[in-house]
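Worked example 4.2. Below are the chains of a multi-component assembly; read each line carefully before continuing.
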Amino acid sequence: MTTTESTRTSEPVLQLDGVRKEFGGVVAVQEFNLSVYSGEVVALVGDNGAGKSTLVKLVAGVHRPTAGQIRISGEEVTATDPRQVRELGIEVVYQDLALADHQPVYMNLFLGRELVTGPFRRLDKKRMARETQALVDELDVRIPSAKAIIRDLSGGQRQGIAISRATQWAKQLIIMDEPTAALGVAETAKVEELIDRLRRRDLAILLVSHDLDQVMRLANRITVLRRGVHVGTRMTEQTDKNEIVSMITGLQAADERA
Amino acid sequence: MTTTTTETAARRRTSLGSYDFRPYLVYIGFVLIFLVMAVTLRDEGFLTSGNLLLILQQTAPITVMAVGTVFVLSSGEIDLSIGSVVSLSALVSAVLLRDHGFVAGIAGGLLTGMTIGLINGLLVAKLRLPSFLITLGMMGLVTGLSERITRLQPVPSTNEVFNGLFGAGSLAGVSTLILWSGAVAVAGHCIFRHTRAGAHVLATGDNVGAARVAGVNVDRIRIGVLVASGACAALAGMLYTGRLHGATYTLGSADLLTVIAAVIIGGTRLKGGVGTVVGAVVGSLILGLLNNGLILAQFTPAEQQIARGLIILVAVVLTLREKKT
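Applying the procedure described above to all two chains together yields the following structure tokens:
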């Protein structure tokens, strides 16, 4: 397809091959091909109802494709099991944040994977708080304390926590579904900085976003869906906003084999 | 310029005024009520060690059920069947005790409560029905069973080992009622605050979706809290049976609201996600103090009822006002 992809030597972190998804008789995603490599941000764009959320759920292991293959670091995902996907090193930052509002930051970071100590398997709150503090310091997410209650944090801080949690566990790929949709300008800038920092840590990021300016700023490549059809993938530096818009709206026909 | 200064000043004032004192309300309330009663009811013998121990003993079944209810409410569910489980477990326990002996009596009582809890849990978790409706229905069903099982006849308990172990006796000078409620409170507190299960109960009540995507088995949490609640209610029923040397179908019939009030006053959030076992224990002691004080002050039962209702209303209003964000 594109030049960089053919010159890459490493295996893609995420590879979708002819992925198709039908719900009953309705085709949500027709035939989708995409490879995502570590150290790059790939943006997934498209209008409402284009199939972006379905695609995210397919990769997250919530849905199973009707046809086609999903490989994570070469290993095929077979079961419909979010846990298997997570064990393979993929984390999803959901649009609704998915944080427990009345719990402290560190319990959210370790939710479902709490550290325990001693013969009675007592929660190791000190260690969880310490490791949380170290992580948010490293990622420059500024919160009053790892013991702060989520509810007392701003929207940007919360999104920072949600992304930090994904970072803590993702060894390969983080999928972000509209990570800045609910945020103000300054907070959006902070989250974008954070995404850039994760790329430099050699993680792969699949970014779902409506904000084309943001996509042009952050993504290495942009892939477009329209009504379940994979319109095409572009290198960000070889395209512009106008081309992406015409791909989204259908002014430009789909590539021969996207 | 002047407006900005006043605005900042105003903001500073609100931030001081809106200091969230509610987590400590239950402890402040406990001390205040205790002091008021110590002064006003001194001549009625409120402060004697005998009376204070009596309060602890009388509160024990409520405390035991309050611990279970902390788990249920924190997980975002509610168990309205606990009061009815008290009487059915007590009756089953007393009948088995009479006909089949000590072990059958204890096992039968506990199993009754846990089975009802399990049915509640399965209906809530597997059919995704609201626990409010399921346990409301269960309350009616179990109340009917309690009335039917012995045709409204009380069942005496003549097994002195059972009576001693569950309420009438004492160990090293401490009433077994106090020992049981203390043990349940300590165990409940440790599980709630210091285990993964406790953390998962809170997360489930706080944000089910978040808990689920984080790999928490929310169905198991919901079933677990309702079984625990049933077990606590059954233990409370056996404590009544032991203390009163017998069981009747009316046991526990007034306990549901008392327990929920104790837990809410203690600082547990009705909508889930926030809970405290220590607060619930203190909450149940506050209600026990009030009960005792109103009797010592020679209020008639109707007046006691009015006073209790008023105090619970005030406490709940103070506790439940959600912090403005």
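Take a moment to check your reading of the output against the notes. The two ends of chain A are 8 Å apart (CA to CA). Chain A has nine helices and twelve strands.
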